């Protein structure tokens, strides 16, 4: 195996000079996103630097409780971000989204780390944290798209919902239509990504592993596994989030509590 | 069969109705009459438990309308909404969404025939149909479930006189149906047994 070439901090900053090209483009086309871009890059640098420091310690320590706590924090941040991005009320949605995050991560980690990779120690920081992070990071985006589609459709098509509620009186069956559309909206981008992976895109994790010294074959096997884990995790997370949310978004007459969706982000 | 006692409803500052009481007996066809925007649709929605009155009570078949009885009560209703521009693609999808079984579909097809909906129209995409065609198709689908109470919100709004005649001919054939409708259409109002003024 070849030795890994480290990147010096100076070289990293030198690499950042390439940002001049898009910034000149933004100025030329009068696109007002320079400030947001610089803030996002600075945030990324600070966040990743902190993560690097934390992970150095966490990897060295490799204590199950600390690793679980780390994943718990990731789930918590993901839950808060989802609620905020969609524009929902923390009071009603924190429990369903937290539970869906936990359930999907629990199943994914036990199955993939325990039964597929056969780790003796399932909470090994080297596997447990990055795989959970990959699943949660992707689930966040797909959950936001799927849940926004679900809540938006319920409001937009409430005439259809009530028409069916009165005329067929089977709420669960009526909701399958709305849930189906939401799942499609949430997962379609992921399905599209999987279908072209390797052809027009080389995934970051695989690239990172190869750069880190792994053989391409091992990197691809891990990439396949992680894509499956992401897809299963995202699907479970979205479906459980919707099913648990349904307990809070209807009243005892099965009416939609529209006041919960007043601040919903309709951009999606 | 439908009994409303001292119903009051208010939207923000606007009073929709105050102490409104009414009775609709089994087998009657009653039309709710009031100027536009005066709460006819809201009365129907209160009866179905879609909106809650500020005061008063509703009884259906002597059952008080509340969250415990709502499933049993809604099982008695077929509802033709005022807005028939529903986001569905085809008649097949409507059949699927309304969970029509084989018997219901047989009724549905015979009602469509009586309302002069041709085989060709049935094949069209739902969004391409006229308001009157949509109204007749949705009504036929709703009543094919043979529920005892029909709540019809502006059933004549997109129908010409001939279609109204066809619809009444069909409704008169249905035995023991209690019909509560809302309408501005004089021909429709004249054909009902009784008028309730809001």
Automatic annotation (TrEMBL), chain A:
Membrane topology according to the record: Multi-pass membrane protein
Chief place of localization: membrane
Family note: Belongs to the UPF0014 family.
Locations listed in the record: Membrane
Segments traversing the membrane: 12-31, 38-59, 65-83, 95-117, 190-212, 224-244
One Pfam family hit: UPF0014
Keywords of this entry: Membrane, Transmembrane, Transmembrane helix
Protein name, per record: ABC transporter permease
Species per Swiss-Prot/TrEMBL record: Ancylomarina longa
Keyword Transmembrane annotated: yes
PANTHER family, A to Z: PROTEIN ALUMINUM SENSITIVE 3, UPF0014 INNER MEMBRANE PROTEIN YBBM-RELATED
GO cellular component: plasma membrane
InterPro entries: UPF0014_fam (IPR005226)
TrEMBL record, chain B:
Domain ABC transporter: 2-198
Top-rank taxon, per record: Bacteria
Protein's UniProt keywords contain Transport: yes
Entry's Gene Ontology molecular function annotations: ATP binding; ATP hydrolysis activity
PROSITE patterns xrefs: ABC_TRANSPORTER_1, ABC_TRANSPORTER_2
Keywords noted in UniProt: ATP-binding, Nucleotide-binding, Transport
SUPFAM superfamilies assigned to the protein according to its UniProt record, in alphabetical order: P-loop containing nucleoside triphosphate hydrolases (SSF52540)
Family annotation (InterPro entries): AAA+_ATPase, ABC_transporter-like_ATP-bd, ABC_transporter-like_CS, Metal_Ion_Import_ABC, P-loop_NTPase
Entry keyword Transport: yes
Protein name in UniProt: ATP-binding cassette domain-containing protein
Organism: Ancylomarina longa
């Amino acid at each position: 195996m070849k030795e890994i070439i480290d990147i010096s901090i100076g070289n990293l900053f030198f690499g950042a000079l390439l940002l001049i090209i898009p910034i000149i483009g933004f100025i030329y086309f009068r696109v007002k996103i320079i400030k947001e871009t610089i803030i996002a890059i600075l945030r990324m640098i600070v966040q990743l630097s902190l993560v690097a420091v934390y992970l150095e310690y966490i990897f060295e320590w490799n204590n199950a409780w600390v690793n679980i706590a780390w994943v718990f924090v990731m789930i918590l941040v993901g839950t808060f971000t989802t609620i905020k991005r969609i524009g929902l009320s923390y009071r009603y949605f924190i429990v369903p989204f937290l539970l869906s995050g936990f359930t999907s991560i629990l199943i994914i980690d036990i199955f993939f780390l325990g039964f597929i990779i056969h780790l003796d120690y399932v909470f090994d920081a080297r596997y447990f944290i990055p795989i959970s992070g990959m699943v949660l990071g992707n689930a966040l985006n797909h959950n936001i798209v799927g849940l926004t589609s679900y809540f938006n459709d319920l409001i937009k098509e409430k005439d259809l919902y009530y028409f069916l509620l009165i005329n067929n009186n089977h709420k669960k069956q009526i909701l399958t239509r709305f849930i189906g559309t939401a799942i499609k909206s949430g997962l379609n981008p992921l399905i599209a990504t999987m279908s072209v992976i390797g052809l027009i895109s080389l995934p970051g994790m695989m690239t990172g592993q190869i750069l880190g010294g792994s053989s391409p074959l091992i990197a691809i096997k891990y990439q396949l596994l992680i894509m499956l884990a992401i897809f299963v995790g995202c699907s479970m997370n979205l479906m459980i989030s919707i099913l648990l949310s349904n307990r809070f978004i209807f009243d005892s007459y099965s009416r939609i509590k529209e006041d919960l969706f007043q601040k919903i982000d309709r951009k999606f | 069969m439908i009994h409303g006692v001292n119903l009051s409803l208010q939207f923000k500052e606007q009073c929709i109705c105050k102490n409104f009481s009414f009775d609709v007996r089994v087998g009657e066809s009653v039309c709710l009459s009031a100027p536009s925007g005066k709460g006819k649709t809201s009365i129907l929605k209160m009866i179905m438990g879609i909106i809650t009155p500020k005061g008063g009570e509703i009884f259906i078949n002597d059952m008080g309308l509340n969250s415990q009885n709502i499933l049993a009560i809604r099982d008695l209703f077929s509802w033709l909404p005022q807005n028939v521009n529903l986001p569905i693609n085809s008649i097949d999808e409507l059949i699927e969404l309304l969970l029509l079984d084989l018997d219901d579909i047989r009724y549905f097809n015979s009602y469509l025939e009586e309302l002069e909906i041709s085989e060709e129209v049935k094949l069209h995409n739902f969004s391409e149909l006229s308001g009157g065609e949509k109204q007749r198709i949705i009504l036929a689908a709703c009543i094919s479930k043979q529920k005892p109470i029909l709540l019809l919100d502006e059933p004549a709004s997109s129908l010409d006189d001939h279609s109204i005649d066809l619809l009444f001919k069909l409704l008169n054939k249905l035995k023991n149906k209690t019909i509560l409708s809302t309408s501005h259409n004089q021909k429709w109002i004249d054909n009902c047994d009784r008028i309730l003024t809001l």
